[in-house]
Amino acid sequence: MSFLTSLFKQEMWVRALEFLFERVLAYTAAFVMFVMMLVTLVDVVGRDLFSAPLPGGFEVTELLLAALIFLGLPMVTAENAHVDVDLLDSTVPEFLKPLQNIVIGLVNVIAFGVLSWMLWKFALRTYRYEDTTAILEIPFAGLVFLMAICCTLSTVALVWMLLFKRGKKLFSHHRAGEVE
Protein backbone atom coordinates (compact mmCIF):
# COMPACT_ATOMS: atom_id res chain seq x y z
CA MET A 1 0.00 0.00 0.00
CA SER A 2 1.46 3.36 -0.95
CA PHE A 3 1.79 6.32 1.35
CA LEU A 4 -0.85 8.33 -0.52
CA THR A 5 -3.49 5.62 -0.34
CA SER A 6 -2.85 5.10 3.37
CA LEU A 7 -3.02 8.87 3.90
CA PHE A 8 -6.62 8.95 2.74
CA LYS A 9 -7.83 5.96 4.75
CA GLN A 10 -10.61 7.05 7.06
CA GLU A 11 -9.66 4.57 9.81
CA MET A 12 -6.18 6.05 10.17
CA TRP A 13 -7.53 9.54 10.76
CA VAL A 14 -10.18 8.33 13.19
CA ARG A 15 -7.55 6.39 15.18
CA ALA A 16 -5.30 9.46 15.28
CA LEU A 17 -8.17 11.68 16.43
CA GLU A 18 -9.22 9.08 18.99
CA PHE A 19 -5.70 8.97 20.44
CA LEU A 20 -5.56 12.76 20.54
CA PHE A 21 -8.99 13.16 22.14
CA GLU A 22 -9.01 10.22 24.54
CA ARG A 23 -5.37 10.20 25.58
CA VAL A 24 -3.67 13.55 25.07
CA LEU A 25 -6.61 15.83 25.84
CA ALA A 26 -8.03 13.63 28.60
CA TYR A 27 -4.72 13.25 30.44
CA THR A 28 -3.93 16.93 30.02
CA ALA A 29 -7.36 17.84 31.39
CA ALA A 30 -6.83 15.49 34.35
CA PHE A 31 -3.46 17.10 35.06
CA VAL A 32 -4.96 20.60 34.84
CA MET A 33 -7.73 19.57 37.23
CA PHE A 34 -5.15 18.16 39.67
CA VAL A 35 -3.12 21.39 39.57
CA MET A 36 -6.30 23.42 40.06
CA MET A 37 -7.12 21.27 43.08
CA LEU A 38 -3.63 21.83 44.53
CA VAL A 39 -3.81 25.59 44.00
CA THR A 40 -7.21 25.71 45.70
CA LEU A 41 -5.96 23.55 48.59
CA VAL A 42 -2.90 25.73 49.18
CA ASP A 43 -5.02 28.88 48.90
CA VAL A 44 -7.68 27.69 51.38
CA VAL A 45 -5.19 26.25 53.89
CA GLY A 46 -3.06 29.38 53.67
CA ARG A 47 -6.07 31.62 54.16
CA ASP A 48 -7.70 29.66 57.00
CA LEU A 49 -4.66 28.51 58.98
CA PHE A 50 -2.09 31.21 58.35
CA SER A 51 -4.22 34.19 57.28
CA ALA A 52 -2.09 34.34 54.15
CA PRO A 53 -3.88 33.22 50.97
CA LEU A 54 -1.89 32.17 47.93
CA PRO A 55 -0.97 35.37 46.06
CA GLY A 56 -2.74 35.31 42.70
CA GLY A 57 -4.44 32.01 43.48
CA PHE A 58 -7.70 33.27 42.08
CA GLU A 59 -6.01 34.26 38.79
CA VAL A 60 -4.30 30.90 38.43
CA THR A 61 -7.57 29.11 39.17
CA GLU A 62 -9.35 31.19 36.51
CA LEU A 63 -6.74 30.31 33.89
CA LEU A 64 -6.79 26.62 34.81
CA LEU A 65 -10.59 26.52 34.72
CA ALA A 66 -10.67 28.04 31.23
CA ALA A 67 -8.06 25.50 30.09
CA LEU A 68 -10.08 22.66 31.62
CA ILE A 69 -13.30 23.71 29.91
CA PHE A 70 -11.71 24.01 26.49
CA LEU A 71 -9.72 20.76 26.87
CA GLY A 72 -13.02 18.99 27.48
CA LEU A 73 -14.79 20.61 24.53
CA PRO A 74 -13.42 18.31 21.78
CA MET A 75 -14.08 15.22 23.92
CA VAL A 76 -17.69 16.23 24.55
CA THR A 77 -18.11 17.00 20.86
CA ALA A 78 -16.68 13.63 19.77
CA GLU A 79 -19.06 11.84 22.13
CA ASN A 80 -21.97 13.86 20.70
CA ALA A 81 -22.77 14.81 24.30
CA HIS A 82 -23.59 18.50 23.95
CA VAL A 83 -26.84 19.67 25.48
CA ASP A 84 -29.75 19.18 23.08
CA VAL A 85 -32.95 21.18 23.20
CA ASP A 86 -35.64 19.30 21.33
CA LEU A 87 -38.52 21.75 21.37
CA LEU A 88 -39.59 21.04 17.80
CA ASP A 89 -38.68 17.35 17.49
CA SER A 90 -42.24 16.18 18.08
CA THR A 91 -43.54 18.44 15.30
CA VAL A 92 -41.06 17.35 12.62
CA PRO A 93 -42.37 14.48 10.46
CA GLU A 94 -40.31 11.28 10.57
CA PHE A 95 -39.27 11.51 6.91
CA LEU A 96 -37.66 14.93 7.57
CA LYS A 97 -35.56 13.74 10.54
CA PRO A 98 -32.47 12.97 8.40
CA LEU A 99 -32.68 16.43 6.83
CA GLN A 100 -33.14 17.95 10.30
CA ASN A 101 -29.97 16.17 11.49
CA ILE A 102 -28.01 17.49 8.51
CA VAL A 103 -29.22 21.06 9.10
CA ILE A 104 -28.35 20.83 12.80
CA GLY A 105 -24.92 19.44 11.89
CA LEU A 106 -24.33 22.29 9.43
CA VAL A 107 -25.39 24.90 11.99
CA ASN A 108 -23.00 23.34 14.54
CA VAL A 109 -20.12 23.29 12.05
CA ILE A 110 -20.72 26.91 11.09
CA ALA A 111 -21.05 28.05 14.73
CA PHE A 112 -17.91 26.22 15.85
CA GLY A 113 -16.06 27.29 12.72
CA VAL A 114 -16.83 30.95 13.36
CA LEU A 115 -15.90 30.58 17.04
CA SER A 116 -12.61 28.90 16.06
CA TRP A 117 -11.80 31.64 13.57
CA MET A 118 -12.55 34.35 16.16
CA LEU A 119 -10.44 32.57 18.79
CA TRP A 120 -7.49 32.31 16.39
CA LYS A 121 -7.74 36.04 15.67
CA PHE A 122 -7.95 36.75 19.41
CA ALA A 123 -4.98 34.46 20.12
CA LEU A 124 -2.80 36.22 17.58
CA ARG A 125 -3.82 39.63 18.91
CA THR A 126 -3.18 38.53 22.50
CA TYR A 127 0.25 37.25 21.52
CA ARG A 128 1.07 40.43 19.58
CA TYR A 129 0.00 42.73 22.45
CA GLU A 130 1.66 40.52 25.09
CA ASP A 131 -1.46 40.62 27.29
CA THR A 132 -1.03 39.42 30.87
CA THR A 133 -3.16 38.86 33.94
CA ALA A 134 -3.63 41.80 36.31
CA ILE A 135 -1.90 40.64 39.50
CA LEU A 136 0.75 38.03 38.61
CA GLU A 137 1.21 39.31 35.05
CA ILE A 138 1.03 35.82 33.59
CA PRO A 139 0.96 35.99 29.79
CA PHE A 140 -2.23 34.37 28.63
CA ALA A 141 -1.58 34.03 24.91
CA GLY A 142 -0.81 30.35 25.48
CA LEU A 143 -4.22 29.83 27.04
CA VAL A 144 -5.98 31.57 24.16
CA PHE A 145 -4.03 29.46 21.64
CA LEU A 146 -5.09 26.34 23.58
CA MET A 147 -8.69 27.54 23.40
CA ALA A 148 -8.38 28.10 19.63
CA ILE A 149 -6.78 24.69 19.09
CA CYS A 150 -9.44 22.88 21.11
CA CYS A 151 -12.28 24.72 19.39
CA THR A 152 -10.74 23.87 16.01
CA LEU A 153 -10.50 20.21 17.05
CA SER A 154 -14.19 20.35 17.95
CA THR A 155 -14.95 21.80 14.52
CA VAL A 156 -12.96 19.02 12.85
CA ALA A 157 -14.88 16.44 14.89
CA LEU A 158 -18.20 18.02 13.91
CA VAL A 159 -17.26 18.04 10.21
CA TRP A 160 -16.15 14.41 10.42
CA MET A 161 -19.35 13.43 12.23
CA LEU A 162 -21.49 15.28 9.68
CA LEU A 163 -19.77 13.73 6.67
CA PHE A 164 -19.13 10.18 7.87
CA LYS A 165 -21.07 9.44 11.05
CA ARG A 166 -24.44 11.07 10.32
CA GLY A 167 -24.83 12.59 13.77
CA LYS A 168 -23.50 9.62 15.75
CA LYS A 169 -20.48 9.52 18.08
CA LEU A 170 -17.15 10.04 16.38
CA PHE A 171 -15.58 7.01 18.06
CA SER A 172 -17.81 3.95 18.09
CA HIS A 173 -15.49 1.53 19.90
CA HIS A 174 -16.66 -0.79 22.65
CA ARG A 175 -14.70 -1.33 25.82
CA ALA A 176 -15.12 -4.22 28.19
CA GLY A 177 -17.97 -3.60 30.60
CA GLU A 178 -19.21 -0.52 28.76
CA VAL A 179 -22.90 -0.27 27.95
CA GLU A 180 -24.29 2.03 25.26
Bin the strand percentage: under 5%
Mean pLDDT across the residues is 88
Rg computed from alpha carbons, rounded to a whole number of angstroms: 20 Å
What does the main sheet amount to? none
- Helix coverage percent of residues? over 70%
End-to-end span in angstroms? 35 Å
Order of helices and strands: HHHHH
Keyphrases for this structure?
180 residues; mainly alpha; elongated; disordered C terminus
Give a written overview of the molecule:
This protein has 180 residues and is an all-alpha fold. It contains five helices and no strands.
What's this entry about, in short?
With 180 residues, this protein is an all-alpha fold.
Give the SSE map:
Layout: H1 3-7, H2 10-50, H3 57-78, H4 97-129, H5 141-165
Helix pairs in contact: 2-3, 3-5, 4-5
